[in-house]
Amino acid sequence: MDDQTKLELEAAVFRRLVEHLRGRTDVQNIDMMNLAGFCRNCLSNWYQDAAQDKGVSLEKSEAREIVYGMPYDDWKAKYQTEATADQQAAFEKNKPPTLSRELRRLAWLLDGQCGVWQRTARLLTAAHISRGH
């Protein structure tokens, strides 16, 4: 498969995923986090990161509107429900270590590079986690 076709297929899959999530307003972000380790907000953050990588300025609110199909505050008011005690407990049990967005991004950028960079990313991540961030 050539690179252009691959890019077009990946874009189509992303659009289909976003459309699917827009139609499944019954599925809460906390449920997605508990089951899959990502949610709509993660997708919007990744979208914003990709824009930044291309030198495109995109505000957090703009990226969220792309994913949610409406302003985030409107989506929350219409569809977000209060998390249950069970949902919150599952989230606390399963959530990944908290890393700053910048450190996660650095680790992602360094992933797949030479072994020195991979070790550096792992060390930075471990140091960040050990400080309780």
- Which architecture of the largest domain does the CATH hierarchy give at level 2? Orthogonal Bundle
Helix content: over 70%
The CATH class of the largest domain is Mainly Alpha
Radius of gyration: 17 Å
Structural class: mainly alpha
Task: Describe this entry's structure for a reader.
This protein is mainly alpha-helical and 133 residues long. It folds into two domains: 3-96, SMc04008-like (SMc04008-like fold), CATH 1.10.3340; 98-133, no CATH class. It has eight helices and no strands. The chain has helices at 3-23, 29-36, 40-53, 60-68, 72-79, 85-94, 101-110, 115-130. The protein is globular and about 45 Å long. The model has no long low-confidence stretch (mean pLDDT 83).
In brief, what are we looking at here?
The chain has 133 residues and is an all-alpha fold. The chain has 8 helices and no strands.
Write the layout of secondary structure elements.
Elements: H1 3-23, H2 29-36, H3 40-53, H4 60-68, H5 72-79, H6 85-94, H7 101-110, H8 115-130
Helix pairs in contact: 2-6, 3-4, 7-8
List keywords for this structure.
133 residues, mainly alpha, SMc04008-like fold, 8 helices, 0% strand
